[in-house]
Design goal:
mainly beta; binds protoporphyrin IX containing FE; single chain; 2 helices
Length: 287
Amino acid sequence: MSLDRRGETQYLYTYKRIWTPIFACASVAVAQTASAYCDSTSGICYQGYSDPVMNMTIGLVFPPLSTPPSDEYMVQMVAPASFGWSGLSVGGTMADSLLFTLWPYNDQIMLGTRWTSGYVLPDPYAGPKITLLPDSTVNSTHIKASFRCQNCTVWQDGSIGGGDLNSFQLIAYVASYTTKVADPSNIDSSMQEHDAFNFFGLDLTTVHDSSYNSYIGSSASSSTVAPSSTTPASSSAPPATSTSAAPSAAQSAYGQCGGTGWTGPTACASGFTCTELNDYYSQCTPS
Ligand code: HEM
């Protein structure tokens, strides 16, 4: 490694260490738990979260519970068009999770799947079948990817809800605010580390939608890269779902109860214990 390269690495490390706590602190006013919203263009209703600091919206919707369980769900990712790239981890961590990367390339939506075992550039990950939905769009302000993901509940070394689609899943998302990927025309492009990340809790008992099959009817194409609509998205981002946490009240089932910068409730409702999932997120889990 050259001297210049070491200097750059040190800079990125310092930047991350300084800014991560600031982003974490800035989001303490919200109870980071998913709530319902419906996309006004597609009519699809998701359980999701709009992050007022990172300016990203993430939503998920699953088919009704079945035996054997379905291996698919739909996801919506909305981010400012100015971002270099954004990402999603449906396993809630960078390592051993199914990851999605997203950026615009001209009027195209570049949506890829990745996987890594550690804090290094994630590799492209084959297996998931992605189908972009027609409301996906890139315009001057936003990129919105709404997609069906099949073969996506189980991946290398992990699964949604730890294999129980009626339990809980921590969802994580990341952003590179200005730095683009090395080659935006290539869905497998390398990239530098993100500038920020955050989490929200997803109660899987709330994500199963009896309208799911009708949502599939609106699927557009089965390519990983689809041309976007030329019509501007109409208010694609739902309003922020912030709710002030009452510090004195006990946190409800599966709510956040701790983590770096968290100032909300740290005690859990009866029958639940505050369990640390990572430095940034502790959660009330069944005792
Ligand atoms: C070259 C590319 C990347 C590098 C070098 C990198 C590196 C890192 C590092 C060092 C952390 C820990 C930060 C901290 O604790 O302050 C981290 C966290 C995280 N990264 Fe990445 N990352 C990369 C790309 C990605 C991508 C593409 C995704 C998702 C699409 C992602 C998702 C996450 C998530 C969700 C976290 C927070 C949760 C956790 O610590 O596991 N990363 N990354």
